[in-house]
Design goal:
CATH class of the largest domain: Alpha Beta
Number of domains: 4
CATH architecture of the largest domain: 3-Layer(aba) Sandwich
Oligomer: single chain
CATH superfamily of the largest domain: Alpha-D-Glucose-1,6-Bisphosphate, subunit A, domain 3
CATH topology of the largest domain: Alpha-D-Glucose-1,6-Bisphosphate, Chain A, domain 3
Strand content: 15-25%
Length: 449
């Protein structure tokens, strides 16, 4: 069997709805193949959740049919955050959990994510085995053994109570005004309730999904509306979730954006403050140099991995550490959850605010982030300009120029047909010019979408 995956990327299978592989026939076969491989524990149950995209109805039906053909029962939750499915998969002792979502992408995209019975993302070897099974013809189990589908009506209530249980039982959020942006995604009926029931004054935006407005000018990838609302309301802070609720970006009381690196710093430094820190922090190649320096200054170890929360998770397990993060807002807290959970991460930052009696901005005084420039270039799926000599030479030239005062990272996205350029350094004008130089070299040497 080849070790190269054909369909699974860094975060499941994702693509444009109606184009292979995000088509009803492929997803039906995927459900069957996954059902055949994942059915181990004898419960024959799979939890299926989705975000608020209109295509979720179609893909849910296809998955359900494929799983039924493999003899597995589907428990449908309706719109639920990705981490909620990981949690429910464990509590129901299900064979697996499946989420229909394209995370922070717009509604035209969709995807499929799998969780193991332990609530963790599937390892590479299981994904490869599922792909091998896809090459076979579908064989239905006997009619008497076909799977059935049921709805889990109290899924939201179960997950809300779980989230609240990660906040100190002897504390509350009374006196805090919080603006919450749910990106018109799967946290729309969860997050406002969690923070309201813990005592805060919640102002909710992005809570009216219509199937096509998910992530549109809302959520963790676009916090402008949240920043304005925080300032207009004179709120203590703002919380921005992505479409499937596994990413969190925050806004402080002054309207400043607070990214995943800064959130991880607050959680780790508060754990140190409370004498509860176990090990250090795992980040990625995108982690800001300023965050690494800030952790070093207070004596917290830091390790970098490849980009992708699955690699952060692998390193956390290897080190037996508890806190991992990506700049984009994936925060993994292994003493509380088994995957990135935006609501739970936000609650840990709020714990620090309440415990230390400081504002969000004050908790970040130990961190000075280096300026970063991020550029995305849409490329054809079969194009790889990083192999071109001119592009390689340009990147090497920029890297030598920056030396130890900055860095450059150029990579293909694992979830979209994009080439991502990141340049980090002390001078914004300079790094912007360097990023533009690399982008121009790429544009001259690649096939564009």
């Amino acid at each position: 069997m080849s070790n190269k995956k054909r369909y699974f990327g860094t975060d499941g299978i994702r693509g444009k709805v109606g184009r292979h592989p995000i088509t009803p026939d492929f997803i039906l076969k995927l459900g069957w193949a996954a059902g055949r491989i994942l059915a181990k524990k004898g419960t024959n149950k799979v939890i299926i959740g989705k975000d608020t995209r209109i295509s979720g109805y179609m893909l849910e039906s296809s998955l359900e049919a494929g799983l039924a053909a493999a003899g597995l029962k589907s428990i449908l939750t309706g719109p639920m955050p990705t981490p909620a499915i990981a949690y429910l998969t464990q509590t129901f002792r299900a064979e697996a959990g499946i989420v229909i979502s394209a995370s922070h992408n717009l509604y035209q995209d969709n995807g499929i994510k799998f969780f193991s019975s332990e609530g963790t993302k599937l390892p590479d070897d299981i994904e490869l085995t599922i792909e091998k099974e896809l090459d076979k013809n579908i064989e239905c189990v006997q009619s008497a053994k076909l799977g059935q589908a049921t709805r889990l009506n109290d899924a939201a209530g179960r997950y809300i109570e779980f989230c609240k249980s990660t906040f100190p039982v002897d504390s509350n959020l009374a006196g805090l005004k919080i603006v919450i942006d749910c990106a018109n995604g799967s946290t729309y009926h969860i997050a406002p309730t969690v923070f309201t029931e813990l005592g805060s004054n919640v102002i909710a935006i992005g809570v009216h999904p219509n199937g096509i407005n998910i992530n549109y000018k809302r959520g963790s990838t676009n916090v402008k509306a949240l920043q304005k609302r925080v300032l207009d309301e004179k709120a203590n802070l703002g919380l921005a979730f992505d479409g499937d609720g596994d990413r969190i970006i925050m806004v402080d009381e002054l309207g400043n954006k607070v990214n995943g690196d800064q959130i991880a710093y607050i959680i780790a430094s508060d754990a140190l403050y409370q004498n509860k820190l176990k090990g250090g922090v795992v980040g990625t190649l995108m982690t800001n140099l300023g965050m690494k320096n800030a952790l070093k200054n207070i004596g917290i170890p830091f390790i970098q991995t490849h980009i992708g929360d699955r690699y952060v998770m692998e390193e956390l397990l290897k080190q037996n550490w508890k806190i991992g993060a990506e700049s984009s807002g994936h925060i993994i807290l292994l003493d509380k959850v088994t995957t990135g959970d935006a609501i739970v991460a936000a609650l840990q930052v709020l714990t620090a605010i309440v415990t230390q009696g400081k504002s969000l901005n004050e908790l970040l005084q130990g961190v000075t982030l280096y300026p970063q420039v991020l550029k995305n270039i849409k490329i054809a799926n079969n194009s790889n300009p990083l192999q071109e000599k001119t592009v390689k030479n340009t990147i090497s030239e920029v890297r030598r120029f920056l030396g130890k005062k900055g860095r450059i990272l150029v990579r293909k996205s694992g979830t979209e047909p994009l080439l991502r350029i990141m340049v980090e350094g002390e001078d914004m004008e300079l790094i912007n010019a360097l990023a533009e130089k690399v982008a121009n070299a790429i544009l001259k040497n690649c096939s564009l979408l």
